[in-house]
Amino acid sequence: MVLPLSDLAHARETLLALRVVAEQSLGLRLTPSSERYIGDFALDVTEHLPGQWTARVENYSLPIWQEDLAACLWGDGPIARTLAGHRVRQAAILQRDDGAELALVKDPRLDVYHVGALQPRHAPGPVNTPGPPDVTVRPTASAAAHIITVKLLPTYTRAVLQAHAADLSDDLDRARETYEAGTIPDPAPADLVDAYERFATAVPHVITAIREMGTPDENELRFLQEVENIAAAPTPGTEPAPISAHPDPLGWWILEGGDGLIDLATRAADTIVLTTSQSLLAGRPAHALPSLSAPPQPTARRQ
Q1: In this predicted model, what pLDDT tens digit does every residue of 225-257 receive, in sequence order?
Q2: Which residues neighbour 45 within 8 Å (Cβ) at sequence distance 6 or greater?
Q3: What b-and-e string marks burial along 70-98, b requiring 16 or more CB atoms within 10 Å of the CB?
């Protein structure tokens, strides 16, 4: 049975009738609550956020099930403390079209909600990068979305970019400990090829963020285009290389390409926070943030 909420009088009558049936026939005692359904609030919030968002509700019928959400959190803040110290029966998950996910949890004692980031499955090593701090918002959708937009989303984007940069830097350091440009065996060792493939996979997402959030000059823009072109070519040894491909992409990556991209990503991450701080001081919202990756495959959690 579907109750159209556009006909509130009919919906109210039907629910009252169902309550009578439940109490008289099943012996259940139903207590109405004035608290707003978390799914409705979450949906209203998504309508005020930049970009395309969806909202879903997770129900934790057993106390142990809320630990699933705790394990997916990126940081240790109000949400983690709430899950650790209180019974939480529901949470809303806000998901952006690029796969970014935020958890929204009602405070058990106060009339506020806590919003925090879930670990991004598209960033290679988020556990090695501190996650963005949670924000606490009042139960007004437009005001809550404003706080999320100007405080949480910029720090989320910065943390994801830092996670990519840290992972790329680790791969580059390990490669340099073993190999030098010009001395790489042919065919290239599998571990080196795997590291380069991770670099090539991250390149389009990192460059998108650098172009939109950083302030690259003309030379840096040319470098980013070069990186994009080289990384888009097939990985050495996997497919025939196009004529325009770099003759030694692995050597180029070890010698200059990796360091150059990491440096620009690091500076862009700093620019994100600076831009957001300036926007807050000026009393205007920060601009919408770029997507950093394609949507990841959803991870099932208990409902």
Answers
A1: 999 999 988 765 555 555 446 788 888 999 889
A2: 55, 94, 104, 141, 144, 145, 148
A3: bebbbbebbbbebbeeeebebbbbbbbeb
